[in-house]
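From the methods appendix. Each design record in this collection lists the tokenized structure first, followed by the designed amino acid sequence. Records were kept in a plain field format so they could be parsed without special tools. The example shown here is representative of the layout used throughout.

RECORD:
FOLD TOKENS (245 positions):
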């Protein structure tokens, strides 16, 4: 039923995908930059703990934003699979696989965001530990959360490269969007591997992940405003159907 509706009018599906993608980006930026980025004081476990306890509601909103981001990214993954399937079913399916693995990593990683609330919550069973120990453990959880993001960046990097390849070949999207997505995916991969292989160098490198953000936002806005070239999408879909017959 979804495939039939998509074949009749692919442009609304593309705009829906773009809308979900925009929500994904907004929620991710809010949680990472405006919550964790604002609360975590580098090298200062006590100051970080104080920030979390002083603004617990905002900290919990960061977790909620993470969960909304993951749900929306699942929707993006499914819609992108359907949109790009006529270009190459194998590549589209492979892209969806890497995206879902990355989403699973982030879902598990969300526990590292929750853990500081438990460690700093003052429960009776934590009385055996010193306050400084609990603050250090909470800070370590947030460091682990950051590394979890870097691990997921490997899978999302590959996903973006594959989406870039499909967009470039599609004919129903501008090729420049495909090039940007591929470059963005490579920036995610470079950043993630640099953090794990050469952490000292990675700390001095410029934030190349900005390239990924520009690429994803460009694709998002294009899909929301322009959608896809419906006649060319249908042409690809018809050719794919004939190829299956």
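DESIGN:
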């Amino acid at each position: 039923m979804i495939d039939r509706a998509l074949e009749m009018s692919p442009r609304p599906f593309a705009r829906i995908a773009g809308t979900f993608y925009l929500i994904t980006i907004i929620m991710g930026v809010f949680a990472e930059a405006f919550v964790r980025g604002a609360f975590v004081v580098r090298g200062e476990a006590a100051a970080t703990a104080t920030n979390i306890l002083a603004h617990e509601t905002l900290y919990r909103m960061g977790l909620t934003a993470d969960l909304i981001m993951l749900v929306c990214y699942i929707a993006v993954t499914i819609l992108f699979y359907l949109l790009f399937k006529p270009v190459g079913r194998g590549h589209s399916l492979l892209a969806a696989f890497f995206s879902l693995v990355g989403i699973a990593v982030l879902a598990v990683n969300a526990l590292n965001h929750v853990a500081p609330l438990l460690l700093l919550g003052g429960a009776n069973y934590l009385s055996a530990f010193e306050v400084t120990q609990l603050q250090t453990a909470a800070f370590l959880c947030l460091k682990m959360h950051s590394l979890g993001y870097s691990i997921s960046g490997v899978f999302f990097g590959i996903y973006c490269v594959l989406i870039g390849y499909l967009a470039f070949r599609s004919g129903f999207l501008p090729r420049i969007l495909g090039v940007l997505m591929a470059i963005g995916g490579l920036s995610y991969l470079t950043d993630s591997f640099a953090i794990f292989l050469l952490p000292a160098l990675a700390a001095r490198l410029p934030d190349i992940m900005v390239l990924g953000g520009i690429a994803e936002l460009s694709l998002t806005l294009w899909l929301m405003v322009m959608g896809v070239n419906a006649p060319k999408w249908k042409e690809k879909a018809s050719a794919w159907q004939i190829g299956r017959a």
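APPENDIX NOTE: Residues 12 and 49 are 45 Å apart (CA to CA).
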